[in-house]
Write a structure and sequence with these properties.
heterodimer; A: mainly alpha; two-stranded antiparallel ribbon; 11 helices; disordered C terminus; B: alpha/beta; Glycerol-3-phosphate (1)-acyltransferase; seven-stranded mixed β-sheet; 8 helices; 36% helix
């Protein structure tokens, strides 16, 4: 753990303390006013503990494990997606190929091959998966199948892999400084806090919904309250966890607040289209993996590019696959 | 089939499920179980399930705690599972199947006798009344063997189970396993009602109702 930033460890400790408070509060609430809502809250908090434990451990253990963690997350999310959407029997092999894209996409991250990382799913998978379908030759439902499969890859694999790519970034003028874990922690922490803040503001203030047809529970008050909370938190945490000063951190907070909201709605619209409430049952109290990473599918790529254009970057291995902005 | 002559068999089964079946089913597929508390905790009992995939039997067996593994015995077609030596060894030693003749040659011994003797020993017998994996993700015609068993043992606990998604992951005639989340719903025990035809109708109805608990997924 050479040069693992202290600020990241302190933030992790703060997250654990926050969860402990949440556990205590939910236990107290369950004692005072027992009911199904309290049981659900306790279940949610317990699942939070498990998710946080796995995530923090993956981040601390090392780069390869962190990348593998995001690859696993992508796999679980894509599997959930493929299990819910209507698929064609003839496309079994196409779906298998789509799953195969995951190890490759995260291999590019591990190899620090930026060009391939950016092009692999939007260009090569986009062109190759239809080729596999053409070999099978079934045209009924062709467009819908090709479209939905690519949509899943983009959302669950391409988008989420940007969080992993943050891990390997190094500042060109300070290559010894470990910035990856701080950037990822900043992104994931603020995205999740934004979800919680939007929910709490929405619940306490109520008011008119932003998109009543997609998600009647998401109100303007929740959206703006969450955005404000996230922006304030980002402005404070950014200079501690990332190479960004406070003005850029403020910008990152706005991006995460806005992106998180749209990402959440995006997955909600998909669920509404399919006529389901939860994407799965892997995370008791939360639903499926997709219900938890919905906001991250938007915030990860948006935040990545926001950070990427601000600095000159180099790579770990010294083989510079991309020139940065010089 | 006398299992007492192979003392390692129980350990082999437990290791096989612990090291291979549970990790593969958990990670590659991901099981979403409902009402698992309705599964029998002791034998004799009959677990009746729909059949779409070779994975079905592994999923059903892994729903039970490891300690109950020696009690579990799936009924399987002798013509298929005993067709060659390696498969036969695996089916007998690891899965501990009860082989039965699918195409009942009349005049020979009672095809249900081996199942009855397992039940007499207090085993939990797993039965696929469709008789074959059939079309993926559809419930086929149920064979009436279950009703005959219940008629002879009216007190027997008969628990219907419906699985969905496994026919997508590994359908009949395919060797490539494609990851899909799978659902398992366990129903309430079905009591013998005195009439074979009515019992089968009730079982079919119960299994269709369990299937309806799940979100329909289209698979054309």
């Amino acid at each position: 753990m050479n040069g693992f930033p202290v600020s990241v460890l302190v933030t992790m400790a703060a997250i654990v303390v926050m969860l402990a408070i949440a556990s205590l509060a939910s236990a107290l609430l369950g004692r005072l006013r027992p009911g199904p809502a309290q049981d659900n809250l306790r279940l949610r908090v317990r699942t939070w503990w498990q998710m946080v434990a796995v995530f923090l451990l993956a981040l601390v253990v090392g780069r390869a494990v962190s990348i593998a963690f995001f690859a696993l997350l992508s796999f679980l999310a894509l599997k959930e997606y493929f299990s819910l959407i209507p698929t064609r029997r003839v496309d079994r092999r196409v779906l298998f190929w789509a799953y195969l894209a995951i190890p490759f996409q995260f291999l590019w991250v591990g190899l620090e091959w930026y060009g391939m990382f950016l092009a692999f799913i939007p260009v090569f998978c986009f062109l190759l998966l239809p080729l596999r379908m053409l070999v099978i030759g079934e045209t009924a439902g062709y467009l819908r199948a090709a479209g939905t499969i690519q949509w899943g890859l983009m959302t669950t694999v391409f988008s989420l892999s940007h969080a992993a790519f943050l891990l390997i970034l190094r500042l060109a003028d300070d290559p010894g400084r470990v910035v990856g874990p701080g950037l990822v922690l900043f992104l994931v922490l603020l995205t999740q806090l934004n979800d919680v803040a939007q929910y709490l503001w929405g619940r306490s203030l109520g008011g008119p919904p932003v998109a009543p047809k997609v998600s009647p529970n998401k109100t303007w008050a929740g959206f703006l309250g969450g955005l404000g909370t996230t922006t304030v938190l980002a402005t404070i945490l950014g200079p501690l966890l990332t190479p960004m000063a406070w003005p850029a951190s403020l910008g990152a907070g706005l991006i995460i607040g806005l992106g998180g909201f749209v990402g959440d709605l995006n997955i909600s619209a998909r669920k509404r289209d399919l006529g389901i409430k939860d994407s799965g049952s892997l995370l008791p109290g939360h639903g499926g993996i997709l219900d938890r990473v919905d906001s991250l599918t938007y915030t990860a790529p948006l935040f990545f590019h926001f950070v990427y254009v601000q600095f000159h970057w180099t790579s770990y291995s010294g083989q510079v696959h991309w020139p940065g902005l010089s | 089939m006398n299992r007492s002559d192979v003392p390692y068999a129980d350990w082999l089964r437990r290791l096989f499920f612990l090291l291979l079946v549970r990790p593969v089913l958990g990670l590659i597929l991901g099981l979403n179980g409902r009402h698992l508390q309705r599964l029998p905790r002791r034998g004799p009992a009959l677990v009746v399930a729909n059949h779409n995939s070779h994975l079905d039997v592994f999923v059903l067996m892994s729903l039970f705690p490891g300690a109950l593994l020696p009690r579990l015995q799936p009924v399987a077609a002798a013509d298929y599972f005993l067709s060659h030596r390696l498969l036969s060894w695996f089916a007998r030693r690891v899965l501990a199947i009860i082989p039965i003749e699918r195409h009942g040659r009349s005049g020979r011994r009672d095809p249900l006798a081996p199942i009855e003797s397992a039940l007499d020993r207090g085993q939990i017998v797993i039965l696929f009344p469709e008789g074959t994996r059939g079309e993926p993700e559809t419930l086929g015609q149920l064979q009436s063997g279950v009703a005959h068993l219940l008629q002879r043992h009216p007190d027997l606990a008969c628990i219907p189970v419906v699985m969905r998604g496994l026919g997508k992951a590994l359908p009949r005639g395919e060797a490539l396993l494609v990851p899909f989340c799978c659902d398992v719903v366990v129903g309430e025990a079905l009591a013998w009602n005195g009439d074979r035809r009515q019992f089968m109708a009730q079982l079919e109805e119960r299994m269709a109702a369990l299937l309806a608990e799940l979100h329909p997924s289209s698979w054309e």
